[in-house]
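Q: I'm a student working through a structural biology exercise. My instructor gave each of us a protein and asked us to get a predicted structure, then write a short paragraph describing it. Mine is RRM domain-containing protein. I'm not confident about reading structure output yet, so if you can add a plain explanation after the tokens, that would really help. Here is the sequence I was given:
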Amino acid sequence: MNNIRQVQALNKRELENAIPPEASWHADYRDTAYIYIGGLPFDLSEGDIVTIFSQYGEPVHINLMRDKETGKSRGFAFLKYEDQRSTDLAVDNLGGATVLGRVLRVDHTRYKRRDEEEET
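A: Happy to help. First, here is the predicted structure for RRM domain-containing protein. I'll explain a few features afterward.
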């Protein structure tokens, strides 16, 4: 929860100080269209996650991390948007959101897709 508050405070300071987009902390992640999503309810499917996050852009890849033995969700995922700018919207608007009683942590990431993973 502290990370979510830190991001929200940073966004608030940038807004209050009229920081231009190229000077925003988001600019450090202009080279990646992936986000990390943590705190996911364990019974959400990839389709559910795409439905939630598609309100900020077109998802083209999702990797919902699952337990290797049981196949059950581990509660976090990596999602790639078609347009990198969608990551800023998702991080700012869905970080700290509550879904089925769980608080989401949404952040930029430099996720590297494995060879066997296909884009959706």
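A: Here are two points you could use in your paragraph. The domain at 2-108 is CATH 3.30.70.330 (Alpha-Beta Plaits). The chain has a mean pLDDT of 85. It's a good idea to check both against the output above yourself.
Q: Great, thank you!
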